[in-house]
């Protein structure tokens, strides 16, 4: 395990990562840890509070759960909507522009990779800025739904005070009583964030695209993920099966440390910035 601290250590760590990964093409797999410097908390980082995310079965099976979710999301999504890419996101975009990083598979739903300039991005778990109707499959921008929810629940967001935000834009609220949920304006069906919930499968085409990227890559760089969830861990295992060099950059241990050629226990932003400098200078 490598620990990166000072400027000299960062430079040395970046050189070790570069030497391990080679000159590319490098596939990046990112998790919530890359977005913490943008003000979005991690689910499973060392300092993350315990949280039980809502499951797909709860959302589709219980109107009270849906009210609970949309009330919390109505408050929380505005925080995520205001966040900006950090140096880690921008470093990966720089490496893509330099021809080193071939693509990013992200487990995040915050859309910050695209905002930073990355072009080849698979949003494995969907995007927080879209909403889909479970009945007619219509997709609408989350911002349009926000307008409808504000009309149905005037002043709701202003009454909640200080809140804690999760990576999927969920906000911890004491009560959601009285919150009115909007149905699909086209068919009256149930609206759901275009996000893969716990208990829901990642669309098969996204998984196939991810595997193709592994096959086309010369190395894998994991950033900010504990690799607890199989949806991301499967690509690390696929890379290991192909004997690709694997580097894991994360605060704390991961489920795939034993498969990595190099593990780096350090902050994502500073190490990725140093790595981008090493590749582009």
Describe this structure in words.
- InterPro entries: DHS-like_NAD/FAD-binding_dom (IPR029035), NAD-dep_sirtuin_deacylases (IPR050134), Sirtuin (IPR003000), Sirtuin_cat_small_dom_sf (IPR026591), Sirtuin_class_II (IPR026587), Ssirtuin_cat_dom (IPR026590).
- With 281 residues, this protein is α/β, with parallel strands linked by helices.
- It folds into 2 domains: 1-40 and 85-124 and 202-281, Rossmann fold; 48-82 and 126-195, 2-Layer Sandwich (SIR2/SIRT2 'Small Domain'), CATH 3.30.1600.
- 38% of the residues lie in helices and 15% in strands.
- It is built from 9 helices and 9 strands.
- It has helices spanning 7-21, 56-61, 63-82, 87-97, 112-116, 142-152, 204-216, 230-241, 268-280; strands spanning 26-30, 101-106, 121-123, 126-133, 139-141, 191-195, 219-223, 246-249, 262-264.
- Strands 3-2-1-7-8-9 form a 6-stranded parallel beta sheet, sandwiched between helices. Strands 5-4-6 form a 3-stranded antiparallel beta sheet.
- Helix 1 (7-21) crosses helix 9 (268-280), helix 4 packs parallel to helix 9 (268-280) and helix 7 packs parallel to helix 8 (230-241).
- The longest helix is centred in the N-terminal third of the chain and has 20 residues, at 63-82.
